[in-house]
Amino acid sequence: MAAKWLLIETVGGATPSIVGMGSTPRKFTALDKFFKSKDALNEVYSVIVEVMASPAAIDRVSDDGRRRTIVEPLLTFAGRMHGMYLWTGSPDEVVPKRDPAGAWLFNLTASKASGSNDLLDLYAVPENERHTEKAMAGAFTRLETNSDEAEALVKIIQSAPGTIHQAVWNVRRDDDELRAAHFSCRMLEEIDPESGRREVILRGITQDIGPSIDVSAAPPPIVLEHRVLEAVTEEGVHRAICNLRTFQLIRWMGPPLPDVAWEWVDDQPEPGMHPDDIALARAMSANLARGKSEGVLRFRKLDGEWQKCHVEARLMALDQHTTAGLVTVRAASS
How much is the pTM? Predict the structure, then answer.
């Protein structure tokens, strides 16, 4: 049986799979690849089904006194289970310390993100700065660029239910410590219980697998392209990647534009573009096929008023079939 903690994902009705063994990431590994004994496999499946039916921690010894089983579920703020830690061994074994992990989701339709308290602990977020929901772009502010970023952005823009993704990214925690984290997620189509509309939701688990400098799978903290981008950025200029179909902000490339609402948190106004400027934004997007497009658009400020911004957009090819908008924004005087 397992000597290390197993991290098992249980998202979206898919067959539970192992995505971590100790601090080693696994690629959605079937349980029968690890548990060779049929009795052991049946026992593990039984425990998983039990916890999925009623998410709660388990710590028990078998009737014959030979095995101890510990399960710690990973739940979202709403109480939905994305996975669990599982450890099995003899009752006299010392239970190893497990890596921090947390559950999270991206609502790709609404461009919002939510992370569990376990995830906010992993990110070392102060108690007074925790929100149950934020803009999806806010989730990227702690992530250091990885070589597979384009692949991840393609999947977000395409928003195709059934898509899966795994990657090791560096996380810059709020205490400035750089950690390597393994992300595992699945994209689902769900019906919002309040509005009844169909939404595409990316549900996942993040596991802290150690200090970035000690993890060989962790990417270099900053790749050359981003150093160049930072070097040519003028003061007062801010860059972002946007979905050209929905105009939703995907992520900031560097510091966000100050004084403008974009975070989707409960103590700030709802982000938005001025309704009268949407037609111009659509025209700018349509013109990108012919090159750079620019104009003046208004965005809601933190005080509820509107901020005029000079906006310049260019097409950004993520792969052969998917593009995004690389947008340069500068606040304009009223």
Answer: 0.90
